[in-house]
Design the sequence.
């Protein structure tokens, strides 16, 4: 691989660390007074940080006392003078610390918000804290004059998109109870409908599949699923009320199973009403209750809900645990479909490559018995191989 991949926080020595970026590359061009340093993969690095590529380039100029230039159309980002890659990588670490990482939890999953008072805030999607940046730094003047552009979040993986593709929205409103990112219910409903329509042509089919079938076979299938949900809703961790028939998780599970066609907004509202919308265990419950034999089709229609609720590595692992229980215990005939299921969640921007790879190579008894865990992971091998080959293809392209 020409550029290599490193942890966004290079002080974190964990090969399974969720947040990754390409290793910054440099190329010296010209000579004499016209010598300059080009950063050929600045766009890829910046995309992984969810920042415009002009920000770290300008930061280098501020720190080095050098002029910078940008040709966004031709994807060229230049710092005047000769600067080796090691120096710029060290400066990138400083930029990440000052303008990307949450000051509270040190997570890079932040948006930059410009307030009415022209202060720049890091809004953390991981812990919810809002922390300011040092407004004395020269880069802040550039950011105020060139605020982040509002744009749709791109896919984290696949094709030309790299992790955390796309700039975060400018001046995003903080999440409010009962809403997605501060939007009104009407606005949210419109947005989710629009997103769901774009996700997959099969989404309409998925919704039709949820129409009530009163045949004897269908009734038996629903009864089987309900009994399985009650029996298999053990969550594999330390919640004291999981065994209680009235636990909020079981309430959510049975409600979602009976209201599959309610739509992402109403399902999320129900989880909020029960006080568990942000709990990672809720994700597992919803996987077990919203899906049946047609899970591959149904994922597309529910993608906006899971994109909203899956906000950390722990949430992703819980989702995978739900998949294990669904295909391993409720619908074992679905085990051969595990690669398609994983692909659907991956393409919906819900699962990250690193998390799936780690899950697929480590048998666990947390959600199912060891033998079932082995079977599910064995079935996932074609998808894991595809991920590996996709990485190899990216390396060749570079």
Sequence:
């Amino acid at each position: 691989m020409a550029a290599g991949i490193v942890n966004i926080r290079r002080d974190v020595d964990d090969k399974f660390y969720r947040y990754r970026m390409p290793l910054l590359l440099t190329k010296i061009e010209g000579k004499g007074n016209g010598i300059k340093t080009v950063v050929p993969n600045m766009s890829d690095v910046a995309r992984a940080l969810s920042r415009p590529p002009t920000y770290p380039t300008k930061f280098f100029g501020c720190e080095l006392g050098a002029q910078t230039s940008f040709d966004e159309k031709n994807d060229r980002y230049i710092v005047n003078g000769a600067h080796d890659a090691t120096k710029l990588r060290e400066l990138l670490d400083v930029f990440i610390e000052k303008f990307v990482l949450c000051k509270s939890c040190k997570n890079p999953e932040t948006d930059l918000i410009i307030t009415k008072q022209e202060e720049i805030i890091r809004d953390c999607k991981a812990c919810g804290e809002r922390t300011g940046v040092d407004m004395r730094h020269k880069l802040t003047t550039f950011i105020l004059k060139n605020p982040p552009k509002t744009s749709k979040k791109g896919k984290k993986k696949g094709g030309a998109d790299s992790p955390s593709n796309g700039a975060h929205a400018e001046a995003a409103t903080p999440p409010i109870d009962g809403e997605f990112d501060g939007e009104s219910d009407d606005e949210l409903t419109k947005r989710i409908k629009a997103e769901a329509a774009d996700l997959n042509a099969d989404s309409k089919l998925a919704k039709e599949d949820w129409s009530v079938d009163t045949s004897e076979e269908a009734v038996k299938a629903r009864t089987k699923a309900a009994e399985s949900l009650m029996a298999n809703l053990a969550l594999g961790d330390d919640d004291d009320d999981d065994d209680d028939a009235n636990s909020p998780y079981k309430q959510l599970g049975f409600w979602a199973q009976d209201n599959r066609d309610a739509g992402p907004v109403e399902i999320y509202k129900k989880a909020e009403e029960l006080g568990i919308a942000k709990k990672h265990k809720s994700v597992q419950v919803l996987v077990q209750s919203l899906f049946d034999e047609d899970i591959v089709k149904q994922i597309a229609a529910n993608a906006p809900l899971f994109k909203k609720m899956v906000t950390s590595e722990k949430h992703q692992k819980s989702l995978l645990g739900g998949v294990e229980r669904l295909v391993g215990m409720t619908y074992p005939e679905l085990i051969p479909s595990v690669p398609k299921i994983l692909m659907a969640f991956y393409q919906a921007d819900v699962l990250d490559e690193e998390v799936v790879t780690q899950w697929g190579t480590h048998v666990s008894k947390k959600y199912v018995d060891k033998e079932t865990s082995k079977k599910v992971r064995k079935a996932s091998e074609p998808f894991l191989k595809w991920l590996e080959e996709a990485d190899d293809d990216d390396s060749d392209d570079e």
Summary: The mean pLDDT is 79.
